[in-house]
Amino acid sequence: MTVTTELADELPAAEVAAAKARAAVLLLAFRHGNQLAFDRELDRLLAEQAEREVATLLVWIAAEAVRKAYAPEVGDRVLRGLVRRAPADTSAVVIDEDSVDAALLLESVAAGDVGTVRALVASTPDTTYLLGGVLQAVAMMLPLLPDGEAEEIAAELRRRHSGRVPPQVPEARQR
Questions:
Q1: 66 in Cβ contact with 76 (< 8 Å)
Q2: Residue 52 belongs to what domain range?
Q3: Quick one: DSSP state of residue 91?
């Protein structure tokens, strides 16, 4: 049996279906150009201060639509294109390979600077390049590990994430 706990600001499970229906009303009205229905539903949501819940559900619906319509790499290109075409005052989204700083992320993690880590990740919704930089850094550090350490780390990761028993390291590679 799986036990789930609700976070303090999380939408209660009982309200999720109603919020999805409200998001669907907005999407249908927008898709079909029904400005009156769209404005009425939006005014109702704003009056009830349900913006965060509905925005979350709209993003979830959009992400599902992109996932079903495009291969992952194509979907990312489509979304990056939308960001680039957004008006200048609303497109403060970091998506460019040169604008993310994996070195700052590593330094902040090493220093225990949670605020900087959170700010960097929050300002980088397209984490492709950020995670790629971290992966490159890890690859650069692997040769510096003592013999057998990389294998032990890989075995521990397998145990934690897959529950599988790690393959035996050949006798010649053990110390």
A1: no
A2: 13-69
A3: -
25 & 63 share domain: yes
Q: Is residue 102 part of a domain?
A: yes
- The first and second tokens of residue 129, run together, are 């390049």
- What does DSSP assign to residue 99? G
d(CA 62, CA 74): 15
CB atoms within 10 A of CB 90: 8
162 and 106 in a single domain? The answer is yes
Per DSSP, helices labelled H in 86-127 are 102-111, 114-122
- CA pair distance 99, 125, nearest whole angstrom: 12
**Tens digits of residue pLDDT in 1-60:** 555 555 556 667 777 778 788 888 888 888 887 888 888 888 888 888 777 777 888 888
Residue 150 within a domain? yes
Q: How far is CA 142 from the centre of its chain?
A: 27
The model's pTM is 0.43
Which single residue is written with the structure tokens 């999720």?
A: 16
- Do 114 and 156 have their domain in common? yes
